[in-house]
Amino acid sequence: MNINQEQLTIFKTVIETGSFSAAARQLGKVPSAVSMSIANLEIDLNLTLFQRVGREPIPTPQAIILYEKTEQLLIEINQWKQHAFALSEGLESSLNIVVVSELLHIQWTDYISLIEKQFPELQINVFSAPQEDAQKMLLNQSAQLALMFEREQLESSEQFVELKREALVPVAAIHAPLAALEQVSYEQILQSRQIIVASRDRTLKPELLFSKKYWRTDNNLSACSMIMQGLGWGVLPLEMLNQNPHIKQQLKILNFLDFSPKFEYYVDLVWSRESQLGSAARFLINHIRNSRKNTK
């Protein structure tokens, strides 16, 4: 059986127009070519698709059943061709994006939607990981793009574009001892257990670590749950609190005596210079760059 896209298109058009001649006009063919294509299709399928009685061909029940599947099949064939063309033009076979777990509350899915609209057939894999682990994924090329906080020292192989500013604030449960204090001294911070979002690699020192005693977790949601339970204080994104009033009501932003209790960082889209980026990754990078130009 050797059925091609042109035969399926002709079959579909004959059904929809009701005649070989009308289908021929719509497709820009001569009626004999349409009639021959249907006859060959019937031979290939070993089915009678049209009863040729009277002036117009009448679809058989078998033809009606096949017609219901033909349109979707033609759509899939076109999508397959478009995807193959995109691959030949440099589209990656899949795109791996890692979102730092402290940033899962931001509208990162907006960026995924942009890529999906431009490359609907692309497989996109999204991971979450603490900052240090996300950086490792870029370096070992298990992810092509990362949404992460700015780093004090940029790896020589990294390149980035800024997305937005993000504020982090120190918080404790409203019933915790630290929350009862108007101002918290550095000595009191040192002696209070801190819940820290950190790498799964225990050999790496967590960022924004102030307390001598601390518990680690790899995402903000579990950190937030432990803080609300009164198991320690921690640093959480201010936007996360503002987006969740029920969480904000259970926490108090601590007022540090010796330094500002508000930490501001840029959120970056980061990639490795050593990775061979495909069309989708480059599309997102250029989109963000152009958006920044338009807002300046």
From TrEMBL:
<dbReference type="InterPro" id="IPR036388">
    <property type="entry name" value="WH-like_DNA-bd_sf"/>
</dbReference>
<keyword id="KW-0804">Transcription</keyword>
<comment type="similarity">
    <text>Belongs to the LysR transcriptional regulatory family.</text>
</comment>
<dbReference type="InterPro" id="IPR036390">
    <property type="entry name" value="WH_DNA-bd_sf"/>
</dbReference>
<dbReference type="Pfam" id="PF00126">
    <property type="entry name" value="HTH_1"/>
</dbReference>
<dbReference type="GO" id="GO:0003700">
    <property type="term" value="F:DNA-binding transcription factor activity"/>
</dbReference>
<feature type="domain" description="HTH lysR-type">
    <location>
        <begin position="1"/>
        <end position="60"/>
    </location>
</feature>
<dbReference type="InterPro" id="IPR000847">
    <property type="entry name" value="LysR_HTH_N"/>
</dbReference>
<dbReference type="InterPro" id="IPR005119">
    <property type="entry name" value="LysR_subst-bd"/>
</dbReference>
<keyword id="KW-0238">DNA-binding</keyword>
<protein>
    <submittedName>
        <fullName>DNA-binding transcriptional regulator, LysR family</fullName>
    </submittedName>
</protein>
<dbReference type="Pfam" id="PF03466">
    <property type="entry name" value="LysR_substrate"/>
</dbReference>
<keyword id="KW-0805">Transcription regulation</keyword>
<dbReference type="GO" id="GO:0000976">
    <property type="term" value="F:transcription cis-regulatory region binding"/>
</dbReference>
